[in-house]
From TrEMBL:
Residues 1-12, 50-60, 135-144 have a biased composition (Polar residues). Residues 107-118 have a biased composition (Low complexity). Residues 145-154 have a biased composition (Basic and acidic residues). Residues 1-196 are annotated as: Disordered. Keywords: Membrane, Transmembrane, Transmembrane helix. The chain crosses the membrane at residues 769-789, 841-864. Signal peptide: none annotated. This is Uncharacterized protein. The keyword Transmembrane applies.
């Protein structure tokens, strides 16, 4: 029946049926001969020609390529759903020619040199050519000029580093509808030991048929020899560096910063692309508080549930770069304990790697100067409460919740008692009755009845035909009829000759089949009930005796005589041809009648797919299912049929035509709503039928391209849609292509700054306990030791004075004895003896002095080694940590990230193995999987560089997520920073975490990316109330 959907459309609007009145839904066409909408054609040509389709201004860092505009790579009309490549390397012809022309152009513009030098320069350009990321639908090439720039010139550049002058802008792909599973004709995974251009995998060839993805064909999470690739790519410049962050001293006092005394963070940069809308929007949070204001980027504050402005911390190169965001930025702050920051300061200028002798002497000099200053500061600050704190436990150690609440109604709900327009006085049983009906018809309303004396069939009501006295012998049965399928591109409704030829061939086909009636949409659809009749055609096909396809030369074949196969392919491009061929009876062949030919062409149904459709593999799977030769599950049937239908053209009758065509293959059919968008129509159909939670599965997919259509089941992780097991449920369909989701777990991502992370250790370390005692007790040791030492000194001094006094007394007595006569010796006075008492006092003094000396010495040793002991105190592994999700924009090496949160580099954090499409991993010598820095892959490093250089607010950016529960770091791509992660499904032993941004003016959570998190995070997350979810902001 798509046959009727393809008539040409006049400029004034859609064409109307021959009988006049309402618009014929089958008589609509596109403005081009290839059936591709104008915008899709222009976007596809821009993509193939290398011109960015979403950028109107050229950047000095992104010169526009010198390419002919509007010329497709393969030389013919563009089919955006079936791009093919003429080479074994997967590069389109035009892209290859442009690369070659770019190389020659580059060589001619260079300075004069010898032929060998020119050849070397050309080879250098080829080696530097980079292929676009694997999710792109086409392959773009770029080449660097940095090979011809001296190292001195590169080092003389100012901060922040400027991009290479010939780095092209990344083109934004148009909508790419690819088969089930994501890829076809993909190259197997190869262990690469090559440079940038060789590490990139060739772009996949997108055809229109279904092919499941094997697990070995994933190209987003490569297991390659990254070390060799990195060594071979060292010749290329990159903005990825491991320079230390500037922190407060280098970033707080800048010209572009705005200072706030009350709000935190206190220093921010305003958005470079603020909203121009002057409208005021209203938001009601989970506690019922209202906020009104202009449109800007905000998030739900987990502390009090209110909506707050979004401030994103970023790396220094982004903070000092152009302001190209719609949200505010701030610099990254070190939140580790002050004492630990002081302990690391003396060695902060030291770095690994070889150094010259002068640099080594200078580093030692700095260390000698900074060490005593640090020791002095540490011993004065280490005893102050709060400075040594590592954080407090919040939420019982769980993540901060996502305080969302939806206050509105749904357009369509799963349970109709929640409808906002429930009739007054109606019971739930009455409301549910229409939902249970299938809206099927048992026989057609009108048929074209052929009489012996008439050349054509005459439209007749079936009810009137039954009541005719001549037909009483049929006992009220509907006459058997032939279903006529055609396309309005070959038989125009406005052309009387085409209409007559159509009815003539239909009459002949009916008589050849031995029947007296046929059904053709041109004459048998009621003018006043076209909308319902269009979407009940599937029931008419099911009740038909057989089907005849009537074809003829179309508008695109005006200059030549087309072949039967080309005319069938033109007929098969229409949307409704697929359900017609699937639902017709399989016991009779399909007869094809050609305009200008006498006899019909009989094609068995199981061979019809190869003749009529380009995606014959997908169509053959569906035909085999309906013939009983191959049984598909419900999910496979809906998924494959949806991909096949969305790959076909539709008329301009209703936006949800693809879903309405799919509705004919299912039992339950909701009532058609002309206001539904394509997504709403499919969501409504999915709610009415058991589709194995297909929409929930589509939510958990990570698109291979930012512009991938919502109906595509291609996943950047390379899994099939049935590999995902949803853990949430769609509760209703809302406006703006959104659904209401319930049952998901979620957590808030903190973007403004890091927090101190509380931690616990299972076993107390005696060494760490001793260090803690010495560090905190050193001042007291020193004080007590000095008191002891002073007491001993004073005791010795007193003892010396007493002994001197006793000696003087003894001298006086000796004089008295000498000059005073005594009669007897016993009468003479005796000397005072201070020996025993003096010795006892001296022993005590020596003991006090020794203890004081030991205490003072210990305090001095602790004083001198306090930086080392402080680092030792905060060292060790964590048994448990407070669960936080921290985010920042840009890339930092994991040592720097750990230093900003925990104060030192102790290998507590690790790169995520499979957390995002940018995650990379390798196998070590013990056959263990180890996560590696994603930027060791030149492909990812180029994406980081591109994100730094982009100037558009809608371009892809690089963000990094730190999970302190699993102690992992994940780098990912997104347009806006997601403010929450929502766990909506499971796949491959990990959770699918849908990272969403929040549009507070409408209360919609938009999918920015999909991450894979470890299953234990569920224990630290809380349930999220029903939330409104959108696949993308452009869906």
């Amino acid at each position: 029946m798509s046959s009727h959907r393809g008539s040409s459309t006049p400029q004034g609007g859609p064409s109307r049926p021959a009988h006049g009145g309402n618009v014929d839904p089958f008589a609509l066409s596109f403005d081009g001969s290839d059936g591709v909408p104008t915008q899709a054609r222009h976007d596809t040509r821009d993509r193939l020609s290398g011109t960015p389709s979403h950028s109107t201004q050229s950047s000095p860092y992104h010169p526009a390529p010198n390419r002919p505009q509007g010329r497709p790579a393969h030389g013919g009309s563009i089919d955006p759903f079936a791009l093919s490549f003429d080479g074994s390397d997967g590069v389109p012809t035009q892209a290859r020619r442009d690369t070659q022309s770019g190389v020659s152009m580059h060589s001619t513009q260079s300075s004069p040199s010898t032929p060998s030098q020119s050849a070397n320069q050309t080879n250098g350009v080829q080696a530097g050519a980079r292929v676009s990321p694997s999710w792109c639908a086409t392959t773009s090439t770029s080449y660097r000029m940095s090979d011809h720039i001296s190292r001195e010139q590169q080092e003389a550049s100012t901060y922040p580093p400027q991009p290479p002058p010939s780095t092209p802008a990344r083109s934004v792909n148009t909508i790419s509808r690819v088969p089930v599973g994501g890829k076809t004709n993909s190259q197997p995974k190869v262990h690469a030991s090559v440079s940038v251009a060789e590490v990139r995998s060739p772009a996949p060839t997108y055809t229109g048929y279904y092919e499941p993805v094997s697990k070995s064909q994933s190209y987003d999470m490569l297991d390659v020899d990254l070390e060799v690739a990195q060594e071979k790519d060292n010749a290329h410049d990159s903005f990825v560096s491991k320079a230390p962050l500037r922190g407060y001293l280098g970033n707080f006092f800048t010209k572009t910063s705005k200072y706030r005394a009350i709000q935190s963070p206190h220093s921010v940069q305003e958005a470079g692309w603020p909203s121009n809308s002057e409208s005021t929007f209203r938001h009601q949070d989970s506690l019922g508080r209202l906020y009104k204001g202009p449109s800007d980027d905000r998030f739900l504050n987990p502390v009090d549930g209110s909506v707050k402005e979004l401030v994103v911390q970023c790396t220094d190169v982004l903070y000092w770069g152009p302001k190209n965001t719609t949200y505010k930025r701030t610099f990254i702050r070190n939140v580790s304990p002050i004492t630990l920051q002081l302990a690391n300061w003396p060695t902060s200028h030291l770095n690994d790697g070889p150094k010259s002798k002068s640099a080594d002497r200078k580093a030692k000099l700095f260390l000698a100067v900074k060490w005593p200053v640090t020791c002095y500061a540490l011993n004065h600050l280490i005893g102050i409460p709060g400075l040594t704190s590592t954080g407090t436990v919040l939420n019982h150690g769980n993540y901060d919740p996502f305080p969302y609440r939806y206050w509105g109604y749904c357009k369509v709900t799963r349970n109709t008692v929640e409808e906002g327009t429930t009739p007054s006085g109606a019971s739930p049983q009455d409301i549910n009755i229409p939902a249970a009906r299938s809206n099927r018809i048992l026989e057609p309303i009108t048929l074209c009845i052929i009489k012996e004396d008439e050349p054509y069939g005459r439209p007749t009501l079936v009810s009137g035909w039954k009541n005719d006295i001549e037909n009483q012998h049929h006992h009220g049965k509907c006459p058997e009829y032939l279903f006529i399928a055609y396309t309005a591109e070959q038989f125009k409704h406005s052309n009387a000759h085409d209409v007559a030829a159509l009815h003539s061939l239909a009459t002949r086909a009916t008589r050849d089949a031995g029947l007296t009636a046929y059904w053709v949409g041109l004459s048998c659809m009621q003018p006043d009930n076209v909308e319902d009749d269009v979407f009940r055609i599937s029931d008419i096909v099911r009740g038909a005796h057989s089907m005849a396809v009537i074809i003829g030369p179309g508008t695109r074949d005006a200059q030549g005589q087309p072949s039967v196969k080309s005319m069938l392919r033109e007929w098969g491009e229409r949307l409704w041809t697929l359900p017609e061929a699937l639902l017709i009876a399989s016991n009779k062949p399909i007869s094809v009648y050609r305009r200008g030919y006498q006899g019909p062409l009989l094609i068995p149904k199981n061979q019809f797919a190869g003749m009529a459709w380009a995606d014959s593999v997908t169509a053959r799977d569906l035909i085999d299912h309906y013939e009983g030769n191959l049984t598909l599950s419900r999910l496979e049937l809906v998924t494959i049929a949806m991909q096949a239908l969305f790959a076909r053209k539709r008329g301009e009758y209703l936006p949800g035509d693809h879903s309405y065509a799919l509705m004919g293959l299912l039992r339950s059919r909701p009532k058609i709503d002309s206001t539904d968008t394509s997504f709403q129509a499919f969501a409504r159909l999915s709610l009415a039928n058991d589709s194995d939670m297909l929409i929930e599965r589509l939510m958990c997919l990570l698109p291979q391209s930012p512009t991938q259509h919502w109906s595509s089941v291609s996943d950047a992780y390379g899994v099939n849609v049935w590999d995902i097991y949803p853990t949430c449920q769609i509760a209703g369909v809302c406006s703006n292509d959104t659904v209401l989701v319930d049952g998901a777990f979620g957590a808030t991502i903190h973007w403004d700054k890091f927090r101190k992370v509380a931690n616990t250790r299972r076993v107390r370390s005696w060494k760490r306990l001793a260090v803690q005692t010495m560090l905190h007790g050193a001042p007291y040791f020193f004080l007590i030791g000095m008191l002891f030492f002073q007491s001993a000194w004073n005791t010795v001094s007193v003892l010396r004075g007493v002994i001197r006094i006793i000696d003087e007394i003894n001298n006086i007595w000796d004089t008295i004895v000498k000059y005073t006569p005594f009669t007897t010796a016993e009468a003479a006075p005796h000397h005072l003896d201070s020996g025993p008492a003096a010795r006892r006092l001296l022993h005590w003094a020596l003991l006090l002095g020794s203890v004081g000396f030991i205490l003072v010495g210990t305090a001095c040793v602790v004083f001198v080694s306090s930086p080392y002991l402080t680092r030792l105190l905060y060292g060790g592994k964590f048994w448990g940590t407070q669960a936080w999700l921290f985010g920042f924009e840009g890339y930092l090496d994991i040592e720097t990230i750990e230093s900003q949160i925990f104060g030192s580099k102790m290998r507590r954090l690790r790169w995520s193995l499979y957390g995002s499409s940018l995650s990379r991993h390798r196998k070590n010598e013990f056959e263990e999987s180890v996560g590696v820095d994603p930027t060791t892959d030149p492909v990812v490093r180029q994406k980081v560089d591109d994100a730094i250089m982009n100037t558009r607010p809608d371009a892809m950016r690089i963000f990094t997520l730190v999970d302190t529960n699993t102690m992992t770091v994940t780098m990912f791509e997104a347009v806006k920073p997601p403010v929450a992660v929502l766990l909506c499904g499971a796949e491959g032993g990990m959770q699918r975490a849908v990272a969403c941004s929040y549009e507070w003016s409408t209360g919609i959570c938009y999918r920015e990316t999909v991450l894979r998190m470890e299953t234990p995070v569920l224990e630290k997350m809380s349930r999220v109330s029903r939330f409104r979810f959108g696949m993308s902001r452009g869906s």
